[in-house]
């Protein structure tokens, strides 16, 4: 079936979404522990608790706490629940997690993969703040990601941008409300769209929550991660990969082909849709690995990632990028 007629959703063009906005890789899924496999388990229900991964990870609250041990989780929300239980806090208090550092380091965000030897630091809600911003340019210059459990937060601030001039806004801040509209639980691309559609030359209001910091951790404001260097995580010889659909799997470190292909697809996501999401890119590479033509690939994308509406030209370019990465292997 050719590209175009079978597509059921409205196209999303790069003009519709926020320039320089980004999506995090925090969308993780349910599933049982398995060896690495090419079988797509999309749509499988979570396994019973006694069949879930028994891997044990160590964790601390980023602003300081004793060390806790967690196990038996199969997606991000369950992970947050285990951390909250370990420290006797409510799961919604957790904003995001970093791996192997207590700092608000956007290169070390917990996404769809956790190295088997990684140490998890949980950043919890701190000071609330409200700020008015004058949108003097079309692009705000901030990059949005999310934690996989309903919280959008700022991952990067572009030098010289509108938001860069508002010093109270910082990397790591959770965006709770835009002009009084609560966006908790809103998908990342919808948050990007809302920010893009704010009228130019008008004031708007953001309600933000910053991560809690210990006194000795207070540091100069960070601009956040650069796209080319993000999500290089995992110190162990293997990783636990969490998926938006299908089984979680213990896998080896990504191959050179996988790293190149994911980087190319992630660049295309930013170019076409105004977002970055390495876990989404990795899923697309996995879906396209054994597909014989772009039509077959496009239908598999809709089946696997039904929440997204990809432009046809984007699908063609992603198919080409995966093919180029395959050729570079040889």
UniProtKB/TrEMBL annotation:
Compositional bias of kind Basic residues: 1-11
Pfam families xref list: GIPC1_GH1 (PF25083), GIPC1_GH2 (PF25082), PDZ (PF00595)
InterPro entries reported for this sequence: GH2_GIPC (IPR055349), GIPC1-3_GH1 (IPR056814), GIPC1/2/3 (IPR017379), PDZ (IPR001478), PDZ_sf (IPR036034)
Disordered: region residues: 1-47, 221-253
Domain annotation PDZ: ranges: 130-210
Family classification: Belongs to the GIPC family.
Designated name of the protein: PDZ domain-containing protein
